[in-house]
Specification:
1 helix
Length: 87
């Protein structure tokens, strides 16, 4: 079942359609949670999830694209990208 996540940032509501994979299900089980996002370089905002989750069973990539959401297990970083980057 595909998930739709809701983010409220500075009082504005955003929605994201998430891919159907075990990682998204694990993150969905943590919701709702509050997070403070930090800007990183010129391409993303990131936060840490309440607990680290495994990426096992998900398609991994080294290219990340703007207007997408990614999770990087090594840093427990849940990111919203506003610019493309090679990770």
């Amino acid at each position: 079942m595909a998930r739709r996540f809701k983010f409220t940032i500075d009082g504005k509501v955003y929605h994201a359609n998430m891919v159907d994979c075990p990682l998204v299900e694990k993150i969905a089980k943590m919701c709702p949670f509050e997070a403070n996002y930090k800007r990183y370089t010129e391409h993303e905002y990131y936060t840490n999830l309440p607990k680290k989750v495994s990426q096992e069973g998900c398609k991994l990539t080294t290219m990340a694209y703007k207007n997408k959401i990614y999770y990087f297990e090594g840093w427990n970083a849940f990111t919203i990208l506003f610019g493309d980057c090679n990770t």
